[in-house]
């Protein structure tokens, strides 16, 4: 098989290299391949040492990629790796070879391998950031692009926002941004940064970064939007939801059930000042129109929560007819309005003093078997001017003698 041949070639290379003239890049490749030949960590390292000895005998000078290859190989050498990594770094200094971002990436990975010791990751990353803040870099190793994403992920794991800011300043410096890697890596870096800010910073700081980074630096995913909505909530800035809803539509998430449910739930949870209620109802109207779309790829389906929340939002904004239309949908989707929905609906009808609508609402709640139907009937009797026939209907409902349960 190809793999066996490969292993044979490497074994040959390691034992028979004295007879073959090779350049530094061949040795770099063999160093990486050496770890596949041997099972035990000590043997893997012995293989690498053997190759380095042959380089010296053939008078081949190691370069940055040689040392990065050794560190990359060491990542798979367990506990052996950390002691040896120090030797490698000392050797690099002695030869005046400056590390690249790949060097730091491999060192950071080694610190992750120490189970249950986050302080070792913290210690290593602080040491790295202290060093890279003072230097300038250019791309030298294909693995350079893995450093920033992993470093930011580590900041997130450590919940260290100050270190993340320092790291981000390094990204912004000179040509460093090109070493963020491809679009997926770049997005991963910024999403980790944003998640850390969402967890650790005040909402106004998070919003400043959101405006700065989205969409110029990265496009958010569902998780980013959910984090932003939760931060809006804990920062007591729910009035900004309609503004964020525009972004949600722009980024193509307006048909995502989790996001739509969250937006509706946050808007409906508390009573807001009138102008906010108006903006929330406009948002709810937009969400209702999306439920009416018959999209092939994705379709929003009404659930009990979204039906209740949308009805509540229309009712609180005094949009009686739209709230009433929503109530009709409950039966269609085999759902029952909540007590709060009925209460808000009743408040809206009372505001516009529509006795006939109040009576219809009482009938509807009785049909649905909602417990508060009789209480609602009593309140309607007390608070509306009614005809004798309307009063009789209400009394019948209260006594449960009209066939309504």
Automatic annotation (TrEMBL):
Keywords: Ribonucleoprotein, Ribosomal protein, RNA-binding, rRNA-binding, Translation regulation. PPR repeats lie at residues 63-99. GO terms for cellular component: mitochondrion; ribonucleoprotein complex; ribosome. GO terms for biological process: mitochondrial translation; regulation of translation. It comes from the Eukaryota. Belongs to the mitochondrion-specific ribosomal protein mS39 family. This is Small ribosomal subunit protein mS39.
């Amino acid at each position: 098989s190809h793999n066996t041949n490969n292993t044979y070639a490497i074994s040959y290379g390691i034992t028979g290299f004295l007879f073959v003239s090779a350049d530094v890049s061949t040795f770099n490749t063999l160093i990486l391949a050496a770890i596949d030949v041997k099972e035990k960590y000590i043997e893997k390292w012995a293989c690498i040492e053997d190759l380095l000895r042959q380089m010296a005998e053939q008078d081949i000078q190691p370069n940055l990629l040689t040392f990065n290859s050794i560190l990359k190989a060491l990542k798979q050498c367990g506990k052996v790796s950390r002691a040896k990594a120090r030797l490698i770094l000392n050797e690099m200094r002695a030869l005046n070879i400056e590390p690249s971002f790949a060097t730091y990436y491999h060192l950071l990975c080694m610190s992750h391998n120490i189970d249950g010791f986050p302080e070792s990751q913290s210690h290593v990353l602080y040491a790295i950031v202290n060093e890279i803040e003072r230097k300038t870099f250019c791309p030298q190793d294909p693995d350079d692009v893995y450093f920033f994403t992993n470093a930011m992920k580590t900041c997130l794991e450590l919940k260290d926002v100050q270190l993340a800011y320092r790291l981000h300043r390094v990204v912004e410096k000179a040509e460093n941004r090109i070493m963020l890697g491809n679009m997926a890596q770049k997005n991963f870096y910024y999403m980790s940064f944003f998640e850390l800010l969402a967890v650790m910073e005040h909402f106004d700081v998070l919003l400043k970064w959101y405006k700065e980074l989205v969409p110029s630096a990265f496009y958010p995913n569902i998780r980013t939007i959910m984090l932003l909505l939760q931060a809006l909530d804990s920062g007591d800035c729910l009035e900004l939801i309609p503004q964020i809803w525009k972004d949600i539509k722009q980024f193509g998430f307006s048909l995502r059930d989790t996001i739509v449910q969250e937006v509706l739930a946050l808007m409906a949870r508390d009573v807001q000042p009138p102008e906010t209620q108006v903006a929330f109802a406009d948002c709810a109207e937009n969400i209702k129109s999306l439920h009416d779309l018959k999209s092939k790829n994705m379709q929003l389906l009404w659930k009990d929560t979204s039906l209740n929340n949308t009805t509540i939002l229309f009712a609180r904004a005094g949009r009686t007819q739209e709230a009433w239309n929503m109530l009709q949908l409950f039966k269609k989707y085999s759902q029952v309005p909540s007590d709060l929905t009925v209460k808000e609906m009743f408040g809206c009808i009372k505001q516009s003093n529509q006795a006939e609508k109040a009576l219809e609402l009482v009938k509807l709640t009785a049909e649905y078997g909602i417990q508060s139907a009789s209480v609602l009937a009593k309140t309607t009797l007390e608070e509306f001017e009614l005809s004798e026939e309307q009063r009789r209907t209400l009394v019948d409902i209260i006594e449960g003698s009209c066939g309504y349960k």
